TrEMBL record:
Residues 272-341 form the Rieske domain. It is a multi-pass membrane protein. Residues 1-47 are annotated as: Disordered. The keyword Thylakoid does not apply. Pfam families: QcrA_N, Rieske. This is Cytochrome bc1 complex Rieske iron-sulfur subunit. Keywords: 2Fe-2S, Cell membrane, Disulfide bond, Electron transport, Iron, Iron-sulfur, Membrane, Metal-binding, Oxidoreductase, Respiratory chain, Transmembrane, Transmembrane helix, Transport. Residues 38-47 have a biased composition (Basic and acidic residues). It comes from Enteractinococcus fodinae. It is found in: Cell membrane.
Amino acid sequence: MGEQRHGDPGTPGTVERAGDDSGKFAIENPGLPPHRPRTTDEDPRAAKRAERQVSFLFILSIIGTLLFFVGYFGVGQLPLDETNMDLIRVQNTLLGLGTAFAMLGIGIGIVQWSRALMPDHEWVEERESVANEEDRSDAVSIVNDVIDESQIKRRPLLRNTLIGALAIAPLPAIAIFRDLDNSGNQSDDPAQNFGPERLRHTMWDTGTRLVRDVTGTPIRASDVTIGSAIHVVPDGLLDMHDDMLNQKAKAVVLLMRMNPEDMNISPEREDWHVDGIVAYSKICTHVGCPIALYEQHTHHLLCPCHQSTYDLTQEMKVVFGPASHPLPQLPITVDNEGFLVAQSDFLEPVGPAYWERDPRPAEEREA
């Protein structure tokens, strides 16, 4: 055999091989770097100063939450005739600064706590499976060690300010979500001001005329042709000011007409239409997007947000997409002048599903 050249993989010692018992490594383990004490590790005054800094950041978070409440419940609840652009700017400033201080105070405070006060020693610990009671006790001991190293027991100022900041930080979000459906029309019953009962009732009532959205023109049954789709709202909605958008979001309807012979009508809904003219909520039952895409050829109604598809011939049954239940139908009839009117409100809640939602009619729920 010829002479092996320098660098040939077959040359002994050129590369390390798996299973080599020589005890050599291609790169020696350098070990952990030496620990460098921080100022707070050696100087108690520096540690105390860092503790006060972290506590100040937690207190700043509490102040930020309070600023949010001042803007939201104080400035934001002034009568409309006293509201001007200056007050709106003040409110937006309080809401923005309050949210920023509330979140950043906690975040930066925890970072500073871990950087300056928590132990920063590095160590290597082999991973072991927790298989018996002794190992479980060791795991509990490790958790206790972590608590001790965080110094949360030794530094009550940090602990108390952190608990206070974390306790009230979620309150602004809770207030906003609880107030999403809170309109100017207040009731003595809290369930009517908040919660799912607000979604059960709309402006539709017995004898309420169906009028065209935007124009407010009443609709005669003879004006609706087969294949048409008309955006409809209850009569009187467009004259409202303070609560129009809130009510429209629940009561808006799509009016369509098809050949009655193509409709599969449930026995209890035989009188809910007028010669093939039907009215359905246009609020998608998935996440509440407005539906307006009607295919006359297939009789399908399509939601543009997530492509939920409803079949008009099957009382708006979901035939495709993530929607969980059909669109609620508004019972309609005609009055003495030939105008389309509602027979009642929707008999089930409109919009997306939620955990308190009960699709049964009111008489069945009360039975």
